[in-house]
Amino acid sequence: MPFLCFLGCLFACFRIYIYLCSGNQNEEIITAVQLNAMNRELWQGIEAIADSEPLMKRLTRYVKKLVKEREAAPMLMSQEEFFAKLDRAEKQPGKRFASVEELDQYIRSL
């Protein structure tokens, strides 16, 4: 039973890690209720394995690994950087299409 709780705890850690690293770019926005449920699941898992030293050591190693990956992950750009990048992109020459059909013809011609 403690091992199953350990796996649940790791799963909760992983879900929180994915949420934090994704920056919600490709995923739906997580609500406060969902984040609270993940946190509760994580703490319940930790509580269930707290009396097992080997499992706590494994959990600690896994959390340290997640922290290293998080620190190595590129940070999201600030709002100012985003709008500056958008302004630079708008100034560059580009193509505009009046309809989807024009866009489709252009893509097929490439």
Brief overview, please?
This protein has one domain. Helix content is 75%, strand content 0%.
Summarize the helices and strands and which ones pair or pack.
Layout: H1 2-22, H2 32-49, H3 53-72, H4 79-91, H5 100-109
Helix pairs in contact: 1-2, 1-3
- Order of helical and strand elements: HHHHH
- Find the count of extended strands (DSSP E, 2+ residues): 0
Share of β-strand residues: under 5%
Structural class: mainly alpha
Q: What number is the mean pLDDT? A: 77
SS element count, helices: 5
The radius of gyration is: 22 Å
What does this structure look like?
The chain is mainly alpha-helical and 110 residues long. The protein has one domain. Helix content is 75%, strand content 0%. The protein has helices at 2-22, 32-49, 53-72, 79-91, 100-109. The chain is elongated, with a radius of gyration of 22 Å. It starts with a helix and ends with a helix.
List keywords for this structure.
mainly alpha
